[in-house]
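The instructor's notes for this session suggest beginning with a concrete chain rather than abstract definitions. Hand out the sequence below and ask the class to guess, before any prediction is shown, which regions might be ordered.
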Amino acid sequence: MIMKMSVDLSKGFATWKAMVHSNPQKMKEHGFRIIFAGTEADDDSKLHVIIEFESPESLQAFQNDAELTQARIDAGADVESAVATPMSGESFSNFPD
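After discussion, reveal the predicted structure:
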């Protein structure tokens, strides 16, 4: 399942990106990967992320991981501002090859 997430950052993209790159084991453990992550061209505090979760259970594991949530907060993510939008199963990416 694909989720589009938006969240405000207080420490900018570089700090958040470093946190992500330091947690690949958590991502694998919970069964998700980031397809895209970036901030708006004119605002480094507005993060948008496209994440692929293996299942609803992997999304729940991500949401319930207190250690990973704290790492996100420490990296400047305002988790209270986060908006998660499930995407339709009728989608595609990386076209054309």
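Then share the key points. The chain has four helices and four strands. The helical segments are 12-21, 24-30, 56-64, 66-74.
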